[in-house]
Design goal:
Number of helices of chain A: 19
Shape of chain A: globular
Distance between the termini of chain A: 43 Å
Oligomer: homodimer
Structural class of chain A: alpha+beta
Order of helices and strands of chain A: HHHEEHHHHEEEEEEEEEHHHHHHHHHHHH
Largest interface: A-B, 100 and 100 residues
Number of strands of chain A: 11
Mean pLDDT of chain A: 96
Chain lengths: 599, 599
């Protein structure tokens, strides 16, 4: 059976020794984020998730959500777990205290998200979607809307959804057909059908607050004519409680490959009452401002499943005995050696470990930059942080979810035939992880966002926020030949590919489009390498005799394992960059000149 | 919805223009394999599979097999389809006419297998397992056993299974516990439990013939003490028909990620009557002789799912409109352009196409060598063919199933969110393909087989059967700079990695073990490149003005597409070899020195 313990040691290490979460206490509002609080949050999140969410993961997958007469029932135990979750305040951990939140840094709450997702991705979806609504409303909602809706969203009494997709439009939101008619009282009436609405209907919360993209009858076509509306399942009565039912209904739920305990709904709006969020015809902008956070969150979902699969595989690799070590018998008292002695098993485990831990560090770095972009006193510091986040967001979303699937598959492979059987829980990780490559913008769209928008923004300024620190780091650590050399080589490939793309893509956008996915992976591997070299260097300092004793992890072997995993990453994973580089430099011709009729 | 048409054009091309199936008519027994017969077989297989098997694929997945009181019921329609299949003689297509088969080349029947697997992998399993039993019995069974069992296995009236795995042993068959006690009449009584037995129990056939690995009570431990037995579900009565029930029972079926319509059974033997197949204590040898065919078959399963997923994705990419071409509007009459105009969609489609078509050619080449190894008049020719097959079999099994999953995932990705929904059928391809990387020896085991046994065999003699023709081809086509250069570069990497492995692995087997999976992929990519360059050159000759008119495909654009897909393969996929090479050459240290306790 799969097993999971929240990787708190690594989270402590990343937060305190790599990204420096303690520095965030200087920012207004984060004064309370002391090391004690951080420690308590991590430990309690681990305890709650391991004890309450993880046990519901398999059963929730087997049972799935049920739909009957417009009502969605979540699997057994979900309601009780959700009630506990809200009672202990987990839903508002990073939200503004003004609305009942705890006001902790997003950098910390991302770790909590990871733990929730690793234990039960389906369950975590109900909370994640509410976060999305919170983030949008808090930035774009009127004071009236914020005061009316945010407190109950923050407490988790109500949950939220993002209603974007329609049958004819997914990526291309300009094709939205849902209509919004203005009413004399300033409200709107919405009519249309939305599909793939996560948490669109369920039995966990008293009310469901939909944020809906729609267009007025006389609005422009395309994305320019799209506005954002808040449409509650239950209208608020005079005291602000959930009152009469709005004309919003669930038409059915999808039967999916995975995240089966997360309801994915068809939501019908039939002259439903709604309220404008932000400015008319500026709906896309409102959506985009919350997308960095949402895409980072989805990236973390992928990496979280990877962590869970890695841990499950390690447990099995220690227990399962099969064959003998190539070095000769290691455990003569057993019928065979545990499979963890076999090189190919170790290769699979280390691949998972290197990807997941590298992703955790990179994701935390981005999360910290989001915190800075929102809170720092200095405008320029805020802007630079925001630009780095904009650059790295598509990379985090696409790469973390790609490696999430890869690691889930490797974890399953370690189990052999037993991994293919549902009861062991490993194949569920593969099915669950698979959606993360698709939703919140497919990974192909992320790659296009990177090469089409982020590279060219302000003449490459976003890019420099990443390139300059990497360059500086490599220069100042030139003495370390072992790790600097491979990273410098990979970074050189990234620089050359970037220069080529900037030129070729300017002349012909299809050059950029054809290179996008491979370029994103090349970039991501370099970014992970940048995290790994820092982790290895910090770890080495802890091991050196003159260590100043500031290491936060006391588990024996932890720091040595960091260095060893870095070595594996540099030697066995980073070399992918050479093939990616070569593919990119071949250009788009072999892709674009292929006759469409011949496919 | 997914759609599928058997890729008969490409099969014609590969059979006639690449591997030269016509040459097989010179071999004893294959005289009847005329072009007309080959054409008829392909066309009828396509018709039967598209019309009868493909429609049962989704419904079979939803319904799954049911188990109650020891009885397994296959999904609706399977029984009728199986009855039709046997009535039309498909089960014996390549079997010996002496037992009622049609005696056609394995090279041809592999194409039929591909079509069956692409249409309905679960269904095809019932036939494939019977093939495995046929192949083993025909080589190792006594005349008595062959005469008693083969005719009904060939006709499909009875089906077969291979009973190897037990709860404590999968890869390591030396751990087998099932016991066989000799009886005075020369028969045996078998007692034990086998798991993961595909087609172990079902309602399609009148009798089920199990081939069971077991050991006598006083046999040696490890694989040396293992013998092979035939254990029928129903014992034969005096006229050779299925008579009394043997003490073999199904204890349950597994709930699996995919191939849900294929029954995967726990089979209990309780003093069951069985008959020795081959020589006592030579069970492993008997198993191994049928493994080349079985592993090739599983490889083809992977590639077949890849083909089906590719086709489904192409259909969707033509239909789905979303966004506009980066070149500007292509279809102003539509709300958006079909997504097939987007570079990243084309990249995904071409990746699938290049992998699948390359695999089809390589698989057919190996199949032809199997036919030659079994039938050729010249002993040395037979032996050389057999050795090449032995070398390429682990590559075919592991690489085809790896790309099978990759292509299934790409196909699903093209569908976006719709791919994650069960009704479209794309996610089923991912779930179904996933098992092919595991069963019939995990892909890690295939890689070990390649580096541990096949490379070193007879001082590298197997290897030379592949290296020499590739070298010769590259030399004799040096004039073609476009494709020879990238292939020569990749081939050079393979040669250097091989030389290094031969040395390093000799001193330290863990060096070979640590490099195995990457080495296998490197080798496979070169092998695919060798197929692609031949396909491109043949296609170019057909397009040249002085074409001799021997091209067998009349579909417009077919030959040009071959050249264009080759270009894509060389430019965008083959460069992976550089990263693989670099990883291999880093050696095993980063894998083996990692502290076991630190995982």
């Amino acid at each position: 059976m799969a097993s999971y313990r929240a990787p708190i040691d690594d989270m402590r290490f990343v937060l305190h020794e790599i990204v420096g979460i303690d520095g965030l206490r200087e920012l207004t509002g984060f004064e309370e984020a002391t090391p004690d609080i951080i420690e308590a949050v991590l430990e309690e999140a681990a305890k709650f998730s391991e004890e309450r969410l993880f046990p519901l993961n398999r059963s929730g997958d087997e049972e799935g959500c049920q739909f009957a007469d417009g009502v969605v029932t979540t699997p057994a135990g979900f309601k009780e777990a959700y009630a506990e979750l809200t009672a202990t305040g987990w839903t508002g951990i990073y939200c503004d205290p003004q609305y009942g939140g705890q006001g902790l840094p997003g950098t910390l709450s991302l770790m909590v998200d990871e733990i929730f997702c690793a234990c039960n991705l389906s369950f975590s979806m109900y909370v994640a979607l509410t976060h999305g609504v919170y983030n949008t409303l808090v930035r774009h909602g009127s004071e009236e809307l914020k005061n009316a809706y945010l407190p109950n969203l923050v407490s988790g009494l109500w949950t939220g959804t993002m209603c974007l997709t329609e049958p004819q439009c997914g990526t291309d939101l300009g094709l939205i057909k849902t209509r919004a008619k203005a009413q004399p009282d300033g409200s709107f009436r919405l009519t249309g059908t939305k599909i793939f609405i996560s948490a669109g209907e369920h039995d966990l919360s008293e009310n469901i607050i939909h944020l809906v993209l729609a267009r007025r009858p006389d609005a422009a076509s395309g994305t320019r004519g799209v506005s954002l509306f808040l449409v509650p399942k239950y209208l608020l009565d005079e005291s602000g409680n959930a009152g009469d039912r709005n004309t919003v209904s669930c038409g059915g739920i999808e039967h999916k490959m995975g995240i089966r305990a997360s309801s994915t709904c068809v939501i019908n709006f039939d002259e439903a009452s709604g309220y404008l969020v932000g400015t008319l015809e500026q709906g896309m902008r409102a959506m985009f401002t919350m997308m960095n956070a949402a895409r980072l969150e989805v990236g973390v979902q992928g990496a979280a499943i990877g962590e869970a699969a890695y841990q499950g595989a390690v447990t099995y690799a220690r227990e399962r005995v099969q064959g003998r070590s190539l070095k000769g018998v290691q455990h003569p008292e057993k019928a065979a050696d545990p499979i963890i002695v076999h090189p190919d098993i170790r290769r699979m485990l280390l691949t998972g470990r290197a990807y997941v831990e590298g992703s955790r560090a990179l994701g935390s770095w981005v999360a910290k930059k989001i915190d800075i972009s929102e809170r720092h006193a200095d405008e320029r510091t805020r802007r630079e942080a925001e630009e780095l986040v904009a650059l790295l967001t598509p990379i985090v979303k696409a790469f973390f979810t790609d490696i999430g699937l890869e690691v889930a598959n490797l974890g399953m492979q370690v189990y052999g035939g037993h991994g293919y059987i549902r009861e062991h829980g490993m194949e569920q990780y593969v099915r669950d992880a698979r959606i993360t490559q698709i939703y919140e913008g497919t990974n192909g769209i992320q790659a296009l966002d990177l090469v089409g928008r982020k590279l060219s923004a302000h003449m490459g300024r976003y890019l420099r926020h990443f390139f300059h620190p990497v360059e500086a780091y490599l220069e100042s650590h030139a003495a370390d030949g072992e790790f600097v050399e491979p990273l410098a080589k990979a970074f050189g490939r990234l620089q050359r590919a970037t220069a080529w793309l900037a030129q070729a893509g300017l002349k012909d956008p299809e050059q950029a489009g054809a290179a996008a996915s491979e370029y994103l992976r090349l970039f991501a591997l370099v970014a992970l390498g940048y995290m790994w070299i820092q982790m290895a260097h910090v770890a080495q300092r802890r091991l050196d005799v003159d260590d100043d004793g500031t290491g936060v992890v006391t588990t024996p072997g932890f720091y040595q394992a960091k260095i060893d995993t870095c070595r594996f990453f540099m030697q066995r994973l980073l070399p992918q960059t050479s093939g990616l580089f070569a593919s990119i430099m071949c250009g788009s011709d072999s892709i674009m000149s292929f006759d469409e009729a011949a496919f």
